Structures are given as structure tokens and as C-alpha cells.
Amino acid sequence: MFPALRLRLSGLQPNSNYVLAVEVTPADGARYKFQSGRWTPAGKADPEPPKRLYIHPDSPATGQHWMARLVSFHKLKLTNNLCDKQGYAVLNSMHRYVINFYIAQADQVSQLAFSRSIDTFQFAETAFIAVTAYQNDKITQLKIDHNPFAKGFREAAAALRKDCK
């Protein structure tokens, strides 16, 4: 997911263990289209794909661990493939989503469902529209510039600029 979700935590019990997880959920019941330079609702949302909870790979870890550093969910992957078997979050393209962030006091990931202490946070800043192709050339370039796997795109663009001079 780009940009990656990053959070700084505080207020956890330093010696207690916590499991951190995120879930990508629909923000509303609409499908969107990009028209005249902006996103507008374009009808009723498609049926929701199955939800998948993404557990942070450091889980479980102590409150001290989580509070000592910026927590990054850079390994969270998104797809529109309903048959995905990699554990990616499955989304409908052209739909608006928001991220739910969960903190559960638990000694094991398997205890997550039974934890008595689960806090849920949703930040409006995480809302986004899932796309299979970027609708804005500046966003495409930003993604290429910051994607460590886009070296080929950067080299091709540099060669193109060189040829145009």
C-alpha cells in the first residue's frame, strides 16, 4: 500500500504484550468515478469482498516495543483479485476505503479474538479510493519516485528525458 500506514503509539503498559492489526473497510456504500479532475459517486457499491485482518508481523510484542519506535504497516498488500491466496487485503477498484486499526492486549496472535481489551481506531486521514490505474499523472510519478521496485520506470523515464534534449 502506498503510502504506507505509520503510527506512533503511547499509553500502552510497557510490560504487557499487544497484537496490532489493521483492516481495510468500505468508507461508504458508493462506487466512484474520476471526472473533471475529481472523484464523484457513480452509483451503488459492488458487493464487498471478504474482509481480511492484517496482523503486524512484530505481534505480539510488549508495549515498550511498540512505543519505542514508529510502527509501520509497509508490508500490507492490496489486491482486487478475489481469488488471492497471499493474504492480501481484497478491495473493489473505484470504491472508497478507510483503515481500522486494532490494538489488543494479548500474549499470542491466536488470542486476538478472545482478548477483553481491544481498542479500535479509525483515522479519517487514511481514507482512499482503490484504483487499478492512477487517475493523475502526478500521483503516478510520485509512486514511481518512492517505490523501491520501480527502478525500471525511473531509468526509462530518464532515458526518455535525455533523448528529448
From TrEMBL:
Subcellular localization(s) per the UniProt record: Nucleus
Which InterPro entries does the entry mention? p53-like_TF_DNA-bd_sf, T-box_DNA-bd, T-box_sf, TF_T-box, TF_T-box_CS
Entry's Gene Ontology BP terms: cell fate specification; positive regulation of DNA-templated transcription
A Pfam family this protein belongs to? T-box
Which SMART domains would you find in this protein's record?
Answer: TBOX
Q: Does the keyword DNA-binding feature in the UniProt annotation?
A: yes
Note the coiled coil stretches, chain numbering. Answer: none
Question: What range(s) does the T-box domain occupy?
Answer: 1-155
A GO molecular-function annotation:
RNA polymerase II cis-regulatory region sequence-specific DNA binding
Keyword terms, alphabetized: DNA-binding, Nucleus, Transcription, Transcription regulation
What is the first-listed, main subcellular location in coarse terms? nucleus
Q: Which GO terms describe its cellular component?
A: chromatin; nucleus
Q: What is this protein called?
A: T-box domain-containing protein
**What species is given as this protein's source?**
Macrostomum lignano
